Amino acid sequence: MLKRNIMASNKRDNIYIYLWEEFNTVYVGRTINPKSRHYQHRHIPTEKTYQFSSEHHVEHPRMIIIENDLTVEEGVEREKYWINEYRENSPYDVLNKTEGGEIGNVTKLTEEEREKRKKGWAEKHKEYAKLWYKENREKMRSIQKEYFETHKIEISEYQKKYKEEHKEELYEYLKNYREKRRLEKPDKKCDKKEINRIKYEKNKEKYHQYNIKHKSEKSEYNKRYREEHKNELLEKKKLYYEKHKNEILEKQKKYREENKEVILEREKENRLCNKEDKLEKRRKWYTEHKEEINEKRRIYRKNKKISTILH
Q1: pLDDT value for 64
Q2: Among 29, 8, 17, 28, which residue's Cα sits nearest to residue 72?
Q3: Grouped pLDDT means (10 residues each) for the chain, 311 residues
Q4: What is the CA radius of gyration of the chain?
């Protein structure tokens, strides 16, 4: 008699096939749980159906159930029957190497054995996931880009809400992460400025093109941000200046000593430009406020006459 697990004794067997009509090939199988078995065929590289579809660069076909509601003994016999039928009386090539009807002896396991099997399956699943990601990397990237473009506003709002709600937790997580990195690699010290400079040199053209495309959007965003956070920015500047006052003054002195000629030329140019700008501003202001100025003059002259008469 065939040995089965107590949990699987009440379930019924199903016989299914996979067809590749372009290549005239077929695979026959038997299972109690069609969904899990179909997932295994599609995602596990050791399966014959996965190997065949990946070699020929074809999508994995859907599962076609031929017979259902069978006992275990009936399922074994019908699997053998269908394999022989496709081999002898059909134009299809059969992927099955055996005659069918194989069943493993399933018994109850202890908790330790279950944990060991879970760990083994987890490691195998990681390997399968890496292989699948390498094969379908471009598809996943295109799907991610499309989703981000369609749901861009929703994602940004969700990120803002999450940061506001979990502000303290994120701050503590970053602290712990930095401490761990320092303990793991105490000798390696990296400057953020150098890292950013290297990234900018590598992707200089991309940044330039992006800035040209989104120039107006950036300028509007910066204006809004400065208007909304005006007081905060001023306070930050004051605090920074108080902390680094001596360093800033030393840098200014060095720059002026090294670039005296350049500074003088700039001052001359600014003076000439400022004269012309000032004259234009005065003319505009005078034309706009001409009537008010004339009235004030009249009032001043009247008051002056009155004062002379009295004295």
Answers
A1: 93
A2: 8
A3: 36 90 92 91 88 90 92 89 90 85 57 79 80 84 88 89 89 83 60 71 81 84 88 90 89 88 82 75 85 87 77 59
A4: 40
For residue 98, what pLDDT is reported? 82
Question: Which residue is it, tokens 């094969």?
Answer: 135
Q: What is the structure's pLDDT at 5? A: 34
Within 10 A of 23 (CB to CB), how many other CB atoms are there?
Answer: 13
Q: Following DSSP, what letter does each residue of the chain receive, concatenated? A: -----TTTTTS-EEEEEEEETTTTEEEEEEES-HHHHHHHHHH-TTSHHHHHHHHTT-PPPPPEEEEEEE-HHHHHHHHHHHHHHHHHSSSPEE---S-S---PPP----HHHHHHHHHHHHHHHHHHHHHHHHHTHHHHHHHHHHHHHHTHHHHHHHHHHHHHHTHHHHHHHHHHHHHHHHHH-SS----HHHHHHHHHHHTHHHHHHHHHHTHHHHHHHHHHHHHHTHHHHHHHHHHHHHHTHHHHHHHHHHHHHHTHHHHHHHHHHHHHHHHHHHHHHHHHHHHHTHHHHHHHHHHHHHHHHHHHHH-
Q: What is the dihedral of CA 171, 176, 178, 182, to 10 degrees?
A: 160
**pLDDT in the model for residue 27:** 94
CA distance 198 to 191: 11
CATH top-level class for 13-108? alpha beta
Could you tell me the residue ranges of all domains in the chain?
Answer: 13-108
Q: How far apart are CA 237 and CA 241, in angstroms?
A: 6
